[in-house]
């Protein structure tokens, strides 16, 4: 009986253990929360708390009117919680946001913010919720890409809107797929990752990061291609080519007819 009494736990032992467990849990949660607020991981680059704070100021001054003071969206703009740093870098970096005026599609225009401010806005939005990060440099290096495979991926997923040559094309109700010529590697990757405007999202499950790099390599190869067969005519396909042939051919026929008539006279 004495041995059993010695092994019996103190009545407050369970309470002490519970208190210790609660303290440890709370401490770990505080550390995790502080780390999450201090850093917004975007393609290997960590944003500081100062970046997030400055980004919040920029957001409240320029974006809150449409997206709300808490970025949860309004009738004039969607929620930005969970869109990630990549979406901000693409939309703001290409000048599409802030929008100049409401319309069916945001237009490309000179950017309103410098590179540092764009990164600060991206840091703030990234801190609101997990989303696509700014791509790592290795996936933007076209020297490591496979243009042939990129062509296959592009033709299977993108050419129906952007044209096989990446020249862009018209969509319904005044919308359009923009040209991809002259677009930076980073913005092309971010567009695939975030699905801006009318574009679907091609996450890493649909198109892997390596395949995205191949697509970028293919597009950059098109940019450097010459037109050994003659005029490129915007690479818009048989419509522009047929119109050119019809117009020029008809002009030649009419000119030849006029010349023959003048000779006969």
TrEMBL record:
This is Cytochrome bc1 complex cytochrome c subunit. One of its GO terms (molecular function) is heme binding. Heme c 1 binds at residues 63, 66-67. Its main location: membrane. Binds 2 heme c groups covalently per subunit. It is found in: Cell membrane. The chain crosses the membrane at residues 243-261. Keywords: Cell membrane, Electron transport, Heme, Iron, Membrane, Metal-binding, Repeat, Respiratory chain, Translocase, Transmembrane, Transmembrane helix, Transport. It catalyses: a quinol + 2 Fe(III)-[cytochrome c](out) = a quinone + 2 Fe(II)-[cytochrome c](out) + 2 H(+)(out). Pfam families: Cytochrome_CBB3. Heme c 2 binds at residues 158, 161-162. GO terms for cellular component: plasma membrane. Residues 50-129, 145-223 form the Cytochrome c domain. InterPro entries: bc1_cytC-su, Cyt_c-like_dom, Cyt_c-like_dom_sf, Cytochrome_c_Oxidase_Subunit. Signal peptide: none annotated. PROSITE patterns: CYTC. The lineage of its organism: Bacteria, Bacillati, Actinomycetota, Actinomycetes, Micrococcales. The cytochrome bc1 complex is composed of a cytochrome b (QcrB), the Rieske iron-sulfur protein (QcrA) and a diheme cytochrome c (QcrC) subunit. Its EC number is 7.1.1.8. It comes from Rothia santali. It is a multi-pass membrane protein.
């Amino acid at each position: 009986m004495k041995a059993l009494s010695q092994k019996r736990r103190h009545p407050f032992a369970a309470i002490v253990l519970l208190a210790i467990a609660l303290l440890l849990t709370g401490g770990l949660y505080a550390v995790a929360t502080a780390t999450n607020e201090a850093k917004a991981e975007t393609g290997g680059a960590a944003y500081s708390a100062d970046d997030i704070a400055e980004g919040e100021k920029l957001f409240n001054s320029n974006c809150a009117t449409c997206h709300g003071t808490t970025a949860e969206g309004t009738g004039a703009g969607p929620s930005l919680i969970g869109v990630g740093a990549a979406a901000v870098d693409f939309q703001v970096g290409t000048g599409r946001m802030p929008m100049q005026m409401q319309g069916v599609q945001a237009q490309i225009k000179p950017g309103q913010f410098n590179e540092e401010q764009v990164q600060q806005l991206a840091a703030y939005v990234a801190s609101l919720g997990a989303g696509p990060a700014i791509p790592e440099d290795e996936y933007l290096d076209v020297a490591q890409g496979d243009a042939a495979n990129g062509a296959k991926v592009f033709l299977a997923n993108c050419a129906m809107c952007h044209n096989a040559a990446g020249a862009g094309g018209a969509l319904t109700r005044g919308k359009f797929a923009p040209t991809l010529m002259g677009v930076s590697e980073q913005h092309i990757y971010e567009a695939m990752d975030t699905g801006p405007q009318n574009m679907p999202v091609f996450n890493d499950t649909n198109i892997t990061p390596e395949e995205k790099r191949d697509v970028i390599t293919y597009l950059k190869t098109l940019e450097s291609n010459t037109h050994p067969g003659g005029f490129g005519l915007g690479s818009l396909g048989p419509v522009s080519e047929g119109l050119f042939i019809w117009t020029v051919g008809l002009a030649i026929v009419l000119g030849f007819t006029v010349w023959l008539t003048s000779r006969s006279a």
